[in-house]
């Protein structure tokens, strides 16, 4: 076990991770050494055997860093947050079977709410989206309604899902409204970990920004979860994509024909669509050219989804594809290649 040893004796670091007499920060440093120098198979086995120690080390250090961020909030504390989130990601990736059984369900959910808080910087919120999708990919059907509501609120600009409690937004899911008639005991309010800094680059279109992130992460993270049964990777993707279709596609493509199918296409000529109405929204500061936009909502989101789908259909194969005269330099669809 632990055949790679470019950084000292990894076995000694393993022992120090498990040594409860050592402080949490020391154990964290040695846990990082183990993660960075162990073979992937050995690392999976190590996490499976010592999951309780590993989560304790992570959580104790996360709490310390959170308190430090709220007191100081300097660049060094933000770098420490990035480092502890690396450990958090490894926990999500290497322990999907336990997470699927709701291991540390409330603790992990609380941490993700702190990352997804709308008062955080865009970088932290986007990282929260990425880690939340990893968690949901592991939970699959063992998640609760709250996680599905949160998934439906990850991309701002869409209608809030309805429930018996009224509209559900990311804000009231992270910090539910108080009802003092039910109980006098209230949970502590969740506050931002890293508010936007003065030099942070903003985004004019948050809907497009988070939509692109969500579509990217539900694909590229599929194989990052180390399931013992590899079929769960595809199940995890199917779970996320089915809920994307449920919560977002009806708004992005409100007039989509549900009767259409790749296997049983409708070949009738469709009715003419009305011509879109464009309005000038602003002028370019450098060129003074007018910038127009259609009044139709989610038009940019529609373009993003279409481009995302096309990226899987048009895949460049520079050396393996056949030569077709007149198509030099063109990217050919897979069915032509």
Any key phrases for this structure?
disordered N terminus; mainly alpha; single chain; 337 residues; 14 helices; disordered C terminus; two-stranded antiparallel sheet
Kindly describe this structure.
By secondary structure, the protein is mainly alpha-helical. Among the domains are: 1-103, no CATH class; 278-310, no CATH class. Helices cover 51% and strands 4% of the residues. The chain has 14 helices and four strands. It has helices at 10-17, 24-37, 40-49, 51-71, 75-94, 96-100, 105-116, 122-139, 145-152, 170-174, 206-220, 231-247, 249-252, 299-313, and strands at residues 162-163, 166-167, 278-283, 290-294. The strands form two sheets. It has a two-stranded antiparallel ribbon with strand order 1-2. Residues 1-5 and 321-337 have low confidence and may be disordered.
